[in-house]
Give the backbone structure.
Amino acid sequence: DDQPEKGWVVGLVVDHDFSDTLSWNLNYRYVWHEDFARGYENLSFRDENTLRRRDRNQANERTYNFLDTNLNWRPVTGGVQHDVMLGVNFGTETSQFTRINFDGGNPTLDIDILNPVYGQGVPNPDQNVSDNDREREYDTFGVYVRDFITLSDQWKVVIGARYEEFDTSEDLYQPAFPDREFSRTLEANGDDVSTMFGVIFQPNDTWSVYASYAESFDPPTWGREDANGNPITRPELGRQVEGGVKMDFARGSATLSIFSINREDVLQDTGQDQPDGTPIYDFLGEDKSSGFEFEVDAALSDIWHLIFAYARVDAEVEADVNSDRIGQTLLNAPKNSLSIWNRFQFTESWGLGLGINHASERYGSAFAGNGDQSTRLKLPSYTLVDLGVYYSGASFDATLKLSNVGDEEYYVSSTRNTNIVPGLPATVTLSLMKRFD
């Protein structure tokens, strides 16, 4: 199995001050990316022990072309300081998926999971047995406004709104036709207005108390189909309520926040497939993630800097037409997650980093049909250790990072019993940065 890939990224950032109170920002990004997915994929079980596999070779090409620009105006009206941002962003994303080989029904690729015999079924990387290819285009346009209002030294308010519209299409064609005639065209579009509001109270230079409300709008992703084979075109809507307190001290800060996030029309993999192997998706009526986060960013001494973060989250189905789902835990949602990063700066040039990341166990398969979660797959908890060596010179910096030093075998996420994503093994990364005077 292999997945070669390559890509190009071009970015442009422009910042210009017209005056002390008016400035303009522009951010443009273009990406071209190509990759090939070649190898065996796990699909489903033919019986209790026999795993059905697919011999796949697919070429994927994607382009992203997005621009965001905004004006920032900072007037003082009636003794009240405003920081107004008015912006617009738009862009196009295109993708083309060409199935060079897509053999998902050949029983010679089956494997017995209890008594596996490897090497059965030789891949045919250039044999075109595809039933269709796809071309997709996603266009988006948005307008947003935000005002950060300083009422006094103690009270600040932020309000904002964003209008977004999307238009997406998918063309499905049969490679058997010499003129690549499109056999089906699917389209979806929609728009929405998302709002946000927040208030900050700072009684002194040490403490800040805040509360906020925000809405979200997430357009659908092509390639998802319901049980009847119809494309899913409904966007996901969300809302978040958060409150917290922050303490600033001489050599750092600490923040405690409590939050609740509700999402409607959340797309879920049911764990079942169409006869052709296409995964079946459906909607959750509403899910809810609530909990708290605690963060500390502090210099504990002249050489020791600590960043600590802990989160406790309860994520479950809040409402659904299927009553068995209500109360079940969401996929890939650990109750507890912890990260610690220590940096020791021994000299002006040399430093050492030591980090720990932990995630508790979480569910990795679809919801239980009878509401009994003991039948669901659980991904085990994991704890990773990272190391870093830093060098800072007169004109360049260098960082050598060793991730997952113990080469821990762990699993990042899953959507079903046969689609589990493993974590990276021990990895070494060297980064260099040159400064030009």
User: Anything to note?
Assistant: The first strand starts at residue 5 and ends at 17. DSSP finds no helices and 23 strands in the chain. The mean pLDDT is 90. The two ends are 46 Å apart (CA to CA).
